[in-house]
Design brief:
heterotrimer, A mainly alpha (about 300), B mainly alpha (about 280), C alpha/beta (about 350), A: about 300 residues, mainly alpha, MetI-like fold, 2 domains, two-stranded antiparallel ribbon, two-stranded antiparallel sheet, flat, B: about 280 residues, globular
């Protein structure tokens, strides 16, 4: 005797079908056009490198040893420094862009509705100029000849003849300038659907000021903020254009280390191994992030 | 809803930020009026050269086609993806497999552009040798661009949808709308800001991409960033490059302002005629 | 939003229509070359002569070009323009093919000095295109006494305050310059010498006025804007900005401790779609008049002896043509192959860290 499938099972099946129909195309696209190609390339991390950096047999784990810092010159700690530096850069970019985005988003929300798309567009617009051109403009604005640098010199913040750029202040400015649009878009999309009745309710319960914000407004913006953090932290981790131009490129970032292995100082297996480690690290970070945000948001999923 | 004092504070922070956002662009515009070689005084020399330069026009056209073409497709794919994962996924699933769709989506974001570009080149080369399809060119670039834009759209749409009252969907079923109808009449209007935001992000990512475009382009398929990088590498940030940037931003600002004033004019005209009818 | 969708639809339609319009039946020469390194007039002239179409694609560094060739680009391009020190590598890796000299009779125009070079014995894989030197450019308003060697960059006493840079690139010039400064000669090749040079550069990196690793051409632009006061530079870049008046105040010199003379060459990738056309093109460039047109446009020196009489203007200056005394101190970068290449790359990576 066969049993009839229950209504619940049918519905679950239908849900799964809907999931495949909607999410399927996007996921399949990414798998076909990125996961497979990069798996092929990253597979060479398990080969040895010939003298010109091309992968050859025998299979070996030496590229991973190189990631750990071993080379023909023995061991050095350079890679650890690079890694920490890039991490710090990601953190700075995220904090600064988040700190700027909140006031901006609520400023836009306080304006009449017809003005809002315009105000948002004006924030995104500068990122439609070429990145090198706008970073160079900052180099001039903060360089040795600029008024701002004279001011900094007068305040004894920089030695004579040098400017604020290249330097860490310039790098922070450049990062914030670059990544602001990526934080603002998801934050705005999320804040726009804010339920103000909850804020009213909080006010009725005599909460005010900071307390009111943190308990009623901020949690509702959390999904947007978390997406924004991902959009900023991850690219900023691998970014090297801004530190190169505005930071004087004195110190290698992980993005340029990887790029160099495929171009200037070719060693493709090493480059592939570095990329794998970076992907694994970032992937683990994202998984941890997801678990953390689920706990913060209760049962509700705040981010993919 | 926002108290007056807070509103002043917000303005006090925001207006300076807007000024700072445009200061570098003002500098770029200033330099675009630099004197012509071996002469003095500001001039439109750079703009003259620019408007007669066929290569720039071709690169700009290609970049726009690439950006809009890829952004439209990635917005469609990404919106469906974000919606599907928000609505139909089993939120309580545990274990590694539960994280898999997320990891797949995050991969284009975390992959370094150089590795991304080289992987695509190797892959397309292999496919081309095996099947003759997908020769390096605009098509391969569009495919690569779509791939890196989809996650951004999906995440933005997801963020907007999460926290939405699930009974909204039930309500539409009660009104006998099937899945597709409820999607277009209920979901899309609700997530419209996220769809538009995702689309704009896609355009932003595409218009400024150099590395991936360089590796997936075929002979002669020069996009604007590739052209600009080349021009900068050879001649530095010349007045022509500054003129190009100024023209692009100027055009978009003008278009946006025109659209804004047209909409406002229509609204006002609508209000006036309504009053006329009542009176 | 309506406007956006209209623009989008229009752009898409334009894009879809274009490939069909552009499908020509002529043979095509795919040229992969440094940006702005060939006179567009020459390309048009060649198109007329061969009744074909020339498609130019640009790159800005040997490294980028090499990466693209390795990943499959060697089947896309017919002519590529690597610098001399890259030729042995590309040949060893099988990325470029031997040149059939019977198809290139104009090769005899090349000055004897540039024929049969160390980096490509018998000119098997490459033909010289343009040549130049790499020296130091500085701002005399800020730096009163630049000296005659590399000390301006490496000696803190010669430049204690003003910002300066070193190129990033692959490290050959930088290690060479440091070796020359330390007395080992520009083309030092011992591991111990490389390590000493690397240490010097690392010490230089730590100076307060070191403004970063910026390649020669972008550094020239920072010099023009007054952002830095000294850097390494290509002589042709400086010639160009003298000619258009944008760097009249800057001065260039070749350190007498040793500096680089380099040649950019033309080569044919192994799987080039149209090698016959490539050979025709190379022969075309080697013609006396075309060679002169090329150099007059690029403002870099020509290896073509037959072109020398037709060079104009600034091309006869000492900037383009080093004096005999200066030539004595110039050397080609010796090709690095195999294990030495790998060692050098690892040393340079550790310097950049």
């Amino acid at each position: 005797m066969s049993t009839m499938p229950s209504e619940v099972a049918i519905e679950a099946g239908r849900q799964r079908l809907r999931l495949w129909v909607t999410a399927g195309p996007g996921l399949v696209w990414i798998m076909l056009f990125l996961l497979i190609p990069s798996a092929i390339l990253l597979g060479i991390a398990f080969f040895s490198a010939d003298d010109y950096g091309n992968p050859v047999l025998p299979l070996s784990l030496s590229p991973f040893q190189q990631v750990a810092g071993y080379s023909l010159l023995g061991w050095d700690s350079g890679n650890i420094a690079i890694f920490l530096r890039s991490l710090a850069q990601a953190g700075t970019a995220t904090l600064v862009s988040a700190a700027l985005s909140y006031p901006l988003v609520f400023f836009i929300m306080s304006r009449p509705e017809s003005l809002r798309p315009l105000l948002l567009l004006f924030i995104i617009l500068p990122s439609w100029t070429n990145q090198v051109v706008r970073t160079y403009a900052w180099l001039e604005l903060l360089g040795p000849n600029a008024p701002v640098s004279w001011l900094a010199h007068a305040l004894h913040l920089v030695p004579p003849d040098l400017g604020l750029a290249p330097g860490s202040f310039a790098v922070t400015t450049g990062l914030a300038y670059n990544y602001l649009p990526y934080m603002i878009v998801p934050l705005y999309a999320s804040a726009e659907k804010l339920d103000w009745t909850l804020v009213e309710a909080g006010r009725d319960l005599y909460a005010s000021g900071a307390r009111l914000f943190w308990s009623t407004v901020f949690p509702q913006t959390l999904p947007g903020l978390l997406s924004g953090v991902i959009f900023v932290a991850i690219p900023a981790f691998g970014d090297y254009v801004v530190p190169q131009l505005l930071g004087g490129d004195r110190a290698l970032m992980i993005g340029s280390l990887i790029a160099n292995q495929f171009t200037e100082t070719p060693d493709w297996p090493y480059g592939a191994a570095l990329t794998i480690i970076m992907l694994v690290f970032t992937g683990l970070g994202l998984v941890a992030f997801r678990i953390l945000t689920r706990k913060l948001g209760g049962a509700e999923e705040a981010t993919i | 809803m926002i108290p007056r004092g807070v509103r002043y504070a917000l303005s006090g922070i925001s207006w300076p930020v807007y000024v700072l956002l445009y200061t570098p662009l003002a500098l770029v515009a200033y330099y675009s009026f630099s004197p012509a070689p071996n002469s003095t005084g500001h001039s439109l020399h750079a703009y003259n050269i620019l408007l007669h330069d066929g290569a720039v026009a071709a690169a700009l056209r290609r970049s726009l086609i690439l950006a809009f073409g890829s952004a439209i497709t990635s917005t469609a794919l990404g919106t469906l993806l974000g919606y599907g994962l928000c609505r139909f996924r089993n939120a309580n699933a545990k274990g590694f497999l539960a994280h898999l769709p997320s990891l797949i989506i995050y991969t284009p974001i975390i992959m370094p552009s150089l590795v991304f570009g080289i992987s695509e080149l190797i892959f397309f080369n292999f496919v081309h040798n095996a099947t003759g399809l997908l020769g390096a060119g605009l098509v391969t670039m569009v495919i690569a661009h779509i791939t890196f834009q989809v996650p951004y759209v999906a995440l933005t749409v997801f963020a907007r949808l999460s926290g939405l009252d699930p009974y909204l969907f039930e309500a539409s079923y009660d009104l006998y709308a099937n899945g597709v109808k409820s999607f277009f009449y209920l979901i899309v209007p609700v997530v419209q800001p996220a769809i538009i935001g995702g689309f704009l992000l896609g355009i932003t990512l595409s218009i400024d991409d150099f590395t991936i475009s360089f590796f997936t382009s075929g002979p002669g398929s020069v996009t604007l960033p590739i052209y600009i990088y080349g021009a900068i590498a050879r001649k530095g940030i010349s007045p022509e490059i500054n003129a190009l940037g100024t023209l692009m931003i100027g055009t978009i600002i003008s278009l946006a302002l025109i659209q804004f004033f047209i909409t406002r004019h229509r609204e006002r005209a609508g209000q006036l005629s309504a009053r006329g009818k009542i009176a | 939003m309506k406007i956006l969708s209209c623009i989008a639809a229009g752009a898409l339609a334009l894009g879809l229509a274009t490939p069909f319009a552009a499908r020509a039946e002529q043979p095509t020469l795919n040229l992969f070359i440094w940006s702005d390194y060939i006179d567009p007039g020459l390309l048009t002239a060649f198109e007329k002569q061969c009744n074909c179409k020339v498609v130019e694609t640009d790159y800005e560094s040997n490294a980028e070009m090499s990466a693209k060739l390795k990943a499959g680009g060697d089947a896309q391009y017919d002519v590529v323009v690597p610098s001399s020190y890259y030729v042995p590598e590309l040949a060893d890796e099988g990325l470029i093919q031997p040149i059939d000299h019977t198809q290139v009779p104009n090769f005899s125009n090349i000055a004897v000095k540039f024929q049969n070079p160390d980096y490509d014995p018998g000119d098997k894989y490459s033909i010289p295109y343009q040549w130049g030197t790499t020296g130091i450019v500085y701002d005399p308003a800020k730096i009163k006494d630049p000296g005659t060697g590399w000390g301006l960059l490496f000696d803190p006493k010669m430049n204690p305050n003003f910002p300066f840079v070193l190129p990033k690139g692959e490290g050959r010039d930088q290690i060479g310059a440091a070796c020359a400064y330390l007395g080992y000669g520009f083309n030092c090749s011992e591991k111990s010498q490389w390590i000493a040079a690397a240490k010097l550069i690392e010490t230089t990196k730590k100076r307060a006025n070191f403004s970063g690793f910026i390649d020669e051409t972008p550094a020239r632009d920072q010099m023009k804007s007054g952002l830095i006061a000294a850097s390494m530079a290509y002589n042709g870049d400086i010639t160009q900005c003298y000619a258009d008046g944008s760097c009249k105040n800057l001065k260039f010199f070749l350190p007498d401790q040793g500096a680089e003379i380099w040649v950019d060459t033309m080569a044919i990738p192994t799987h080039a779609p149209n090698p016959k056309l490539a050979l025709q093109f190379i022969n075309f460039i080697l013609d006396a008049t075309n060679g002169a047109t090329l150099s007059n446009y690029n403002q870099y020196a020509s290896p073509n002896a037959a072109s020398q009489k037709q060079l104009t203007g600034i091309m006869s200056s000492g900037l383009i043509n080093p004096s005999a005394a200066e030539m004595a101190h110039l050397s080609f970068l010796a090709p690095l192959r195999g294990a030495k290449y790998k060692l050098f790359n690892q040393i340079w990576t550790s310097v950049l860290q």
